[in-house]
Design brief:
- The protein has 17 helices and 21 strands.
- By secondary structure, the protein is an alpha/beta fold.
- It folds into 3 domains: about 170 residues, HAD superfamily/HAD-like (Rossmann fold, 3-Layer(aba) Sandwich), CATH 3.40.50.1000; about 60 residues, Hypothetical Protein Ta0175, Chain: A, domain 2, CATH 3.90.1070.10; about 220 residues, Rossmann fold (3-Layer(aba) Sandwich).
């Protein structure tokens, strides 16, 4: 779904618990897109983008529809913005024409492709409307005090409609939300919408008989949450956050992989979840094991700068609608740890060795120490997530040392290991043969190689004193 919402009195309004619930729902779901649709100018929206509690929007429509930009980059959405620009006669031309109306007080706020004033309703005269029309503009009066002179045919609703069509969005999956008369055009565009509690009386009167509009009881975010359930855009339990998620130490299946099941993008110093763009089919395949509400955790790294980033959040939602029982359990690594562990040791030393190209392997003792330290971090987090009878799926070769890493918690439960791109037996054979690989003895001594090879020829997993059992590569038990 896409939520297109006004800001003041709507997305920024309502009870604190309602705001928190809605913000978390949006931030924790890859299925909810967000568009700010506001009368503010872009410059006045920017402070909101730096608030860590407020989700980053995918797009921003501001200046009452006169400006449309991407939320992450603040770059204009073309050709939409160019089309709006062509309709605007210019601020100076409009301001000069409106100077004759003494009742108008210019708003001292950033504004583009509009001229905005304060005035009483009796100042909105037929003469004023005629002057605006002569400039190919139109008049919008709202909340008993705000007057906007806009390019003809431009409004919140028209720009949102153009954006939705530009993005190829299904209109039935769009919800609009507002609280004043300058939001009316969004409902008139045909979108299903909500007038949140405490909306302007004139807006309520104008939408009272619209079948696509809910007039909510709760103010601000509370009204938006009501509307999401009312229109069936998301399940009620999903909206209320009552769907069961994996608690720490209760995961039946723990997926341990170096990559998160979503991409993390830094915008204005904050981390925002995005759908994976990689064509790699591994992540969708692994996610399929968590369908039907299976309770589990996905352990993966997340780059964290302890000196400059906000406090690290270990657990995040993955997709509460598609995988209500799954949480991401993030392992905080510095950029330097990722560089050494993944790009240097794993790629330059371990990978060539596993594929019998050990003469090309570049081994550094200091890299090996970092590799061990990172594997231990993964082991600690994995043990913390897993229930007593859980299955732990170690998906890649760079986590080879996780099963036998010394950890402070209880031993990990039954473990299935994929190994690498080749069979695990071939990998262990390659390491044994690589006499030039300095870490080979440590790797083989910490990994139950005999059990691994036995398991490859047996349908039953082999249990060890270390509480690690290994199933054939590619199978899950």
């Amino acid at each position: 779904m896409l939520l297109a919402t006004d800001l003041d009195g709507t997305f920024l309004g309502g009870l604190a618990e309602h705001r928190q619930s809605l913000y978390q729902l949006i931030a924790g779901s890859q299925d909810v897109q967000l568009v700010f649709v506001t009368g503010r100018g872009l410059e006045a929206v920017m402070p909101i983008l730096s608030d860590p509690a407020v989700p980053i929007p995918d797009y921003i429509i501001c200046d009452v529809g006169g400006t449309v930009v991407e939320g992450g980059t603040l770059q204009p959405v073309q050709p939409l913005q160019a089309e709006i620009d062509q309709r605007w006669p210019g601020e100076h031309v409009v301001a000069e024409a409106m100077r004759r109306f003494a009742e108008l007080e210019r708003q001292e706020v950033p504004q583009q492709r509009r001229c905005s004033y304060f005035c009483h309703s009796d100042a909105v005269t037929p003469e004023l409307t005629e002057v605006a029309e002569a400039l190919n503009c139109e008049v919008l009066y709202s909340d008993s005090r705000y007057l906007d002179i806009l390019p003809k045919g431009i409004s919140k609703g028209s720009t949102l409609l153009r954006l939705a069509d530009h993005l190829g969005l299904d209109h039935s999956q769009i919800l609009v939300a507002g609280d004043t008369l300058n939001d009316l055009s969004m409902y008139e565009a045909g979108f299903q919408g909500v007038c949140v509690g405490q909306s302007e009386a004139a807006l309520l009167a104008a939408t009272r008989h619209m079948p696509n509009v809910l007039q909510a009881d709760d103010a601000g975010c509370g009204g938006i949450l009501q509307a999401i359930v009312h229109f069936g855009l998301l399940a009620q339990d999903y909206v209320r956050g009552s769907a069961e998620t994996a608690a720490v130490g209760r995961a039946d299946l723990v997926m341990v992989y170096h990559r998160l099941p979503y991409e993390e993008q830094r915008i204005n110093g904050r981390i925002v979840q995005r759908r994976p763009k990689s064509p790699n089919g591994i992540i969708p395949s692994l996610l399929s094991f968590f369908s039907a509400g299976k309770r589990g955790s996905w352990v993966a790294w997340s780059v964290h700068d302890e000196a400059n980033d906000p406090p690290f959040e270990v657990h995040t939602k993955v997709d509460a609608k598609a995988y209500p029982g799954l949480v991401a359990a993030r392992v905080a690594l510095s950029a330097e740890e990722v560089e050494i562990f993944y790009k240097r040791f794993s790629k330059e030393a371990f990978w060539p060795t596993l594929h019998t190209f050990w003469e090309r392997a570049i081994f550094r003792e200091e890299d090996w120490k970092v590799f061990l330290a990172v594997n231990r971090k993964f082991a600690e987090r994995t043990a913390a997530e897993a229930a007593e009878a859980a299955t732990v799926w170690l998906h890649d070769y760079n986590l080879w040392m996780v099963p036998a890493a010394p950890i402070s918690r209880r031993p990990m439960p039954s473990t299935c290991c994929r190994g690498g791109a080749r069979s695990s037996a071939a990998c262990s054979s390659a390491i044994t043969s690589a006499s030039t690989f300095p870490a080979r003895r440590r790797i083989l001594s910490m990994w139950p190689v005999v059990s691994l090879r036995s398991a490859l020829s047996s349908a039953r997993p082999v249990r060890r004193a270390s509480s690690v059992s290994v199933a054939p590569s590619g199978s899950i038990r």
